[in-house]
């Protein structure tokens, strides 16, 4: 696999995984690390940027949620939105540090947009959370290589 294809595939997987679509990027990142031949720093950067941009799409959808939430194609159900909104109201922007957690993370990023979280704080918190997660995945994969 060429480097461009590997990095591009990782970006797409990370982007999709951060949206409300069912996808996973951690296994691909770990596989690329175990395979070797790719820059660890670039892999982590590509995965983090793709994942943060996917979360940003959720934030943008959240800004429009009132307009789209009753549409058939809308990817979140009302119960999940309500749970995430209650969590977000209770813990505020700091709950975005859990944006990497499966099941609750994606709705939290959507609710952050719905509740008009400023983009600068959204990107800082989500970016930090996603980076730490990918660093942990990379460290775990590296432990098998060494």
Question: What do you see in this structure?
Answer:
This protein is mostly helical and 146 residues long. The chain has one domain (3-145). It contains seven helices and no strands. The protein has helices spanning 3-18, 26-35, 40-63, 65-68, 78-91, 105-114, 119-145. The longest helix has 27 residues, at 119-145. It is elongated, with a radius of gyration of 16 Å. The two termini are 23 Å apart. The model has no long low-confidence stretch (mean pLDDT 90).
Task: Please write out the topology.
Layout: H1 3-18, H2 26-35, H3 40-63, H4 65-68, H5 78-91, H6 105-114, H7 119-145
Helix pairs in contact: 1-2, 1-3, 2-7, 3-6, 3-7, 5-6
Tell me the number of helical segments per DSSP (H or I, 4 or more residues long): 7
Shape descriptor: elongated
Proportion of strand residues: under 5%
Return residue spans where pLDDT drops below 50 for at least 5 consecutive residues.
none
In the residues, how many domains can be counted?
1
What Rg do the Cα atoms give?
16 Å
Structure classification: mainly alpha
Count of extended strands: 0
Overall pLDDT level: 90
Helix content: over 70%
Query: H/E order of the elements?
Result: HHHHHHH
Distance between the termini: 23 Å
Largest sheet: none
Task: Produce a short descriptive summary.
This protein has 146 residues and is mainly α.
Highlighted features:
146 residues; single chain; mainly alpha
């Amino acid at each position: 696999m060429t480097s461009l294809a590997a990095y591009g595939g990782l970006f797409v997987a990370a982007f999709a995984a951060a949206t409300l679509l069912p996808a996973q990027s951690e296994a691909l990142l770990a596989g690329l690390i175990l395979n070797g031949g790719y820059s660890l720093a670039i892999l982590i950067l590509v995965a983090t940027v793709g994942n943060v941009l996917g979360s940003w799409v959720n934030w943008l959808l959240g800004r429009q949620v009132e307009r789209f939430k009753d549409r058939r194609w809308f990817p979140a159900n009302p119960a999940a939105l309500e749970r995430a909104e209650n969590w977000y109201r209770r813990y505020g922007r700091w709950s975005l540090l859990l944006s990497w957690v499966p099941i609750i993370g994606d709705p939290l990023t959507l609710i952050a947009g719905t509740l008009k979280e400023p983009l600068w704080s959204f990107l800082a918190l989500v970016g930090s959370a996603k980076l730490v997660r990918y660093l942990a995945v990379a460290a775990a994969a590296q432990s098998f290589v060494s």
